Amino acid sequence: MQKKKELKQEAVRGGRLEFLDSARGLAAWIVLLYHCIQYFNMNIMTLETRVIVPLKIVFNGTQAVSFFFVLSGFVLTASLRDLSGDFDYANYLAKRVLRIYPLYLFAVWTAFFLTPAAGIFTLVQESIIILPHHNMLPPGWTMGVEVILSFLMPVVVIVQRDRRMFYLLMGVVLLSYRYMNPFTFHFMLGAALYDAYRSGYRPAWLLRTGTLLVLVPVCLVLYSWREIAPVVPALMRKVNVILQFISMPEDTLTFYFSGLASGVFIFLLLCADRVQRWLNHGFLTFIGKISFSLYLLHWLFLEAVGYRDYGIRYVPHNMAGLAGLMIFISAVTIAASYLSYRFIELPFMRLGKRVDLRHLLGARTKGI
């Protein structure tokens, strides 16, 4: 048992956990399918409530962002675990920018050419990743959140050295929903999960059948609250009374629910060796590697389908048409994502590993 624990901890020290990459890839694919459903429902054929609600619950793309953010908190904490006195914050920022911004900029500029009504001012606004303007590339709003909160993660890791202080701060963040971005909680939850994982905490009862039969359905309800809520109006009226009393926006509650559920799902995954082995297989690890491109680029192909009403003309107005749209968008996006991963992501990741602003700034200082 001790040897198994040491091997798992060594897997974190030695590099990435591929099964988490695979899980991120599946989540990105779910976002793609969710947007296909939305596009089909809004532009080709309106789906009945009894059809659209189950589809959106199964392919819950909106709440997948909670999964991404909790996972980002985990991964960034793992990468910063050895943070010490010689940590260079400028280098860390440069690496994060080089990891996120080049692909984002490519996607925004491509979206600009697929959006005839967009002007240069719109392009400039969306190119500045942290601004709340993402009309041409709607999934881009998550990139702004990712950049801002990842910049704060070194502080979170430092605070986490004192566990009491960390969990106190996490509670303050959770209760400060009127003043803070709710996704701050998601990143801190990811950091807490990494702390539990590294310490070797694996409660055996968590994977027992009886526990899972209760825990998984409850988490699925929390995770899909946004899609379930409209079909239970009586319950929602009661919930809204509580939300008004505590001045909490409905979206904040929704993302707190999905963030908590995402944290539970990720922790279950960290404990489930059999599921990890399943996720560590070829195609799933491939999807994991290209997940960032898959997430950002799929919208471009949906825009292309909608360009000059191509979708209305060529996509059959029935469920077979929806299935065909999903397959087509999946295929072309996976192919394009592989190319963008190879020719955009990888070169800039390699550049990020070589970046050392201390040497660069030192050379400039000597020149002055």
User: What's the story with the biggest beta sheet?
Assistant: none
Low-confidence stretches: 1-14, 363-368
Question: Number of domains in the coordinates?
Answer: 1
> Structural class, from secondary structure content?
mainly alpha
Helicity, as a percent range: over 70%
Topology pattern, helix = H, strand = E: HHHHHHHHHHHHHHHHHHH
User: In angstroms, what is the radius of gyration?
Assistant: 22 Å
Mean pLDDT across all amino acids: 88
Shape: globular
Provide a count of the helices.
Answer: 19
Cα-to-Cα separation, first versus last residue:
59 Å
Count the beta strands.
Answer: 0
Strand fraction equals under 5%
Give an overview of the whole structure.
Helix content is 78%, strand content 0%. With 368 residues, the chain is mainly α. It has one domain (2-367). α5 (89-113) runs antiparallel to α18 (319-354). The chain is globular. Mean pLDDT is 88; it is low at 1-14 and 363-368.
Brief summary:
With 368 residues, this protein is mostly helical.
Topology (SSEs and partners):
Elements: H1 2-14, H2 18-43, H3 49-58, H4 64-79, H5 89-113, H6 120-127, H7 141-160, H8 163-175, H9 183-199, H10 209-223, H11 225-228, H12 233-246, H13 250-271, H14 273-279, H15 282-289, H16 291-306, H17 310-314, H18 319-354, H19 357-367
Helix pairs in contact: 2-4, 2-14, 2-15, 2-16, 2-18, 4-7, 4-9, 4-13, 5-7, 5-16, 5-18, 7-9, 8-9, 9-13, 10-13, 16-18
